[in-house]
Amino acid sequence: MASQQQKPIVILGGGFTGLFAAIHLRQHQKSLPIILVDKQNRFIFKPLLYDFLSSEVQLDMAWPRYDDLLANRDITFIEGSVEDIDLVDRQVSLDNKLTYDYQYLVLALGGTTGYFGVPGAKENSFAFRHAEDAFTLGKHLRTCLQQASQQRSNSSLTTVAIIGAGPSGVELAATLADLLPEWSQTLSVNPDTIRIVIVQRGDEILKGTNSEQLRITAEQALKDRQVSVELTLEATVEAVEPSHIQYRQHGESKRLAADTIVWTAGNATHPLIADLPVTERDRTKRLKVTPTLQLPEFPDVFAGGDCAVNAADPQPATAQVAYQQGAAIASNISAILNGDSPSAAEVKLRGILLKLGMEEGAAEIFDRFEIKGHLGHMIRHATYLSLLPTPARNIKVGAQWLTDEIFEQVLDV
Fold it and tell me: pTM here?
């Protein structure tokens, strides 16, 4: 067996936490082996998934290859699904028969779609978490529109029900409310027949968002789309059938016919994370970590992103949080390797970015300034492009878009 110094740092999950933990670790530590494992060979840039669906960004922006992102970084990328994590013997096993002993382990497997036990929800609705989901949903929507051009009396073909009014549900609804009318015209379907309905259990959209102004902006944006988005609030989904949902609202049982049902209502803990022999968990089975993002029972294991929570400083499940946690994990592992003590991770929320239609968005910066409309869209794009560890030309292009747009806005005042 390899000596302790020769064992690699193994990172499970190539999302924002895992990818940036790997990149920052390499910057801190020039020679130690780093292995990044993900079941896909491409990184999914989730905040741009809506733009990918609407073709507002290219494939390699929203879904770049790990080989390209990690080129010349001396990080080993392994494509494979994790089958077993042995925290006691410090070993990870993959479905491709590979096993790795680790010196330190980073758990960044993210979460899965949570269906809350609603009958038929998993079987009869679309998820929207990965690039494959965007491909599948887009193909299905086009098929529905094609069928609607021949079956004009079937309104469920042009009705989309989105379950959940968090950021994902709101951004998807706003995107489709602009996109589907464009698609319908090319397929000889009357855009007026399209319905986009958000079904939300609570009494408001963006429930976890502290900004009332951003909620007002989002609600207005949903109304102002090419197809006005309908909000069905205080509605609990009781069952999902292939072409309709059954829900209860204000004590009444109701039915919404829709051939497209998208579930964005919540997250569930990754099954591998849920099965680990760890007692420190929250009520959703996420791993509780120390302020330094370590497992209390296994200090050689770090965790971040959707699969972990620091109870002393809980953070929203967003890209900017995951990115900063990845950097903090890298810094702490490096500190330990250098004989220093790890530090508490400091996550600074810089604001909220929302896509509110094609070429439109809202950027609330430091909870103080709100920029909306097309300029909000440009700020959102430039911010996300600057996060990607791609060649500098992409970042400069994003920054140039933003700079040019700001100057144009100022000159127009």
Answer: 0.90
| Six-digit token string for 218 | 């989002």
Number of CB atoms found within 10 A of residue 383's CB? 20
Q: Which two tokens stand for residue 104?
A: 């330190």
Report residue 392's pLDDT band, with 50, 70 and 90 as the boundaries: very low
- Is the pLDDT at 367 greater than 80? The verdict is no
Q: Is the dihedral of CA 374, 365, 23, 110 positive or negative?
A: negative
Distance CA 82, CA 102 (A): 14
CB count, 10 Å around CB of 277? 10
Residue 374 tokens read as 């097309």
